[in-house]
Design a protein that fits this description.
Helix content is about 35%, strand content about 20%. The protein has about 475 residues and is α/β, with parallel strands linked by helices.
């Protein structure tokens, strides 16, 4: 699986001719396992009379983390966010490692999930979470709370946070080596709720841009980043009676089946005083409301008497964009396409990519003292791909194998009852690493997986006979 994944994921680092001018060819007698790349920091001109200026477009986890890192690193930072109270339709699950890595206060975490139910198409429920250690949990957050906290922290570090709508970007005629011509960003200022109408149109000149403006990224469009397949996520926040809310005190549910999604899953995740009930799909976007109704129906007894307090929908990228970098502009988070298959998680990867991109700019500019070049930002992409390709490709394979039919989903839920599977799954999720397993247990898991899939195929054939 790993070798196959490596071949597939290597395509993410594909470079056009214009993007490879920093790489130096090595003599044949020198090993090519490590590429020798000229970094701009040592050779690019110093910035005089000011520090390097960088704009971060988008104020979600990716933008907030990027802006904070830039500001702390001596960069003159501007963060543009169109909607400060944005409530993105997101399950809101974050891994334990994010709490520590990003120093998140516990009071912004609504619930600490230590139990999860996987519920099959035939409503067979498997309890998972028994391998968690006492200190381990999955954090549940509301995006309007988390995003605001990260933006406020960026502002406290020195970033200038602007409430505005990014419109377009004018790139310099030459953004290559030695160029210090600015990018010109066009945006509208804050729209007044008293006067109405469009905000004042403004421009901003910067040396580099980080696009953190989500799946419908205008920054990505500005650099010709290309399209990608996307899923639609639909979620309802439901306020349920307090006695029913006790059931979800530290429990989350995942439903699989053709009724709730032909290629993803439905969920019930607990929040502060309500539950988030949702689903997603790539292949049947037009049926999303019908699929959502099925998810709500599957959970009906546990949410009976609930009142819908908010309805949300949003696109979710299914794979990275063909191009994530152009000149001194880089994409991060959903704008880059960093949402995992199978789980659909993107919050941690958004914040992590924003921070990694900003760190590359800080390093390349020598804390804002020198101009950056494409080679500096490419350092972030190389580090990202090297670190996370196994996670993305393993989850991609799992989704293709187990989400393709109801019998396969039954096999998937059956596998989740295995304690070893639970340990491997939670360790990988909580700490964002593909955890190496025990060879004997891996062999046992392989045998059990094959057995489950054989039973799934046999069941599918029998169902096909009945339907004829």
């Amino acid at each position: 699986m790993s070798s196959l994944a490596l071949k597939t994921f290597a395509g993410l680092s594909h470079r056009t001719t214009a993007e490879t001018h920093h790489t130096i060819s090595l003599p044949k007698h020198i090993s090519t396992h490590k590429r020798f790349i000229v970094r701009a920091g040592k050779f690019s001109p110093k910035v005089t009379g000011r520090n390097l200026r960088v704009a971060v477009v988008g104020g979600g986890p990716a933008g907030g983390a990027a802006a904070e890192t830039l500001a702390k690193g001596g960069i003159e930072t501007v963060l543009i966010e169109r909607k400060m109270d944005n409530c993105k339709p997101c399950g809101g699950a974050i891994p334990l490692c994010m709490v520590g890595e990003f120093d998140l206060p516990l009071d912004i975490i609504d619930r600490r999930v230590t139990k999860m139910k996987m519920i099959s198409p035939s409503n067979v429920a498997v309890d998972i979470g028994q391998t968690l250690k006492p200190h381990e949990y999955i954090g549940m957050v509301r995006r309007e709370v988390l995003d605001a906290y990260l933006r406020d922290r960026a502002a406290a570090a020195g970033a200038n946070v602007i409430n505005g709508l990014f419109l377009k970007m004018d790139a310099p005629k030459s953004a290559g080596p030695g160029s210090d011509a600015p990018y010109v960003l066009h945006y509208t200022g804050q729209v007044s709720k008293y006067t109405g109408g469009a905000g004042e149109r403004r421009t901003l000149e910067v040396d580099a841009v980080i696009g953190a403006d989500g799946a419908n990224s205008r920054v990505a469009k500005s650099i010709g980043a290309g399209d990608y397949e996307y899923a639609i996520a639909f979620q309802e926040r439901i306020k349920i009676p307090s006695e029913k809310m006790e059931y979800y005190e530290n429990l989350a549910e995942m439903y699989v089946g053709d009724d709730v999604s032909p290629d993803f899953y439905g969920w019930v995740f607990p929040k502060s005083d309500h539950v988030a009930v949702g689903t997603g799909t790539v292949t049947h976007k037009g049926d999303i409301k019908k699929l959502q109704f099925a998810t709500r129906h599957r959970a009906r007894d546990k949410i009976l008497g609930g009142k819908i307090i908010r309805v949300e929908a949003h696109p979710i990228p299914e794979h990275p964009r063909p191009r994530r970098l152009s000149g001194r502009v880089a994409l991060v988070g959903d704008a880059a396409g960093y949402v995992t298959k199978c789980s659909g998680e993107g919050i941690y990867f958004a914040a992590k990519s924003g921070r990694m991109c900003a760190e590359a700019i800080v390093e390349g500019s020598e804390n804002g003292k020198r101009m950056v070049e494409e080679g500096d930002l490419r350092k972030y992409l190389e580090k990202w791909d090297k670190t996370y390709w196994p996670t993305y490709k393993v989850l991609d394979v799992l989704q293709k194998v187990f989400y393709r039919s109801n019998p396969a989903r039954e096999a998937f839920v059956e596998m989740c009852a295995d304690e070893y599977v639970q340990k491997m799954t939670f360790d990988s999720y909580l700490y964002k690493k593909v955890v190496p397993g025990n060879p004997l247990d891996d062999l046992k898991l392989a045998v059990n997986t094959i057995g489950s899939l054989v039973r799934a195929n046999a069941l599918r054939r029998e169902m096909e006979k009945i339907s004829v």
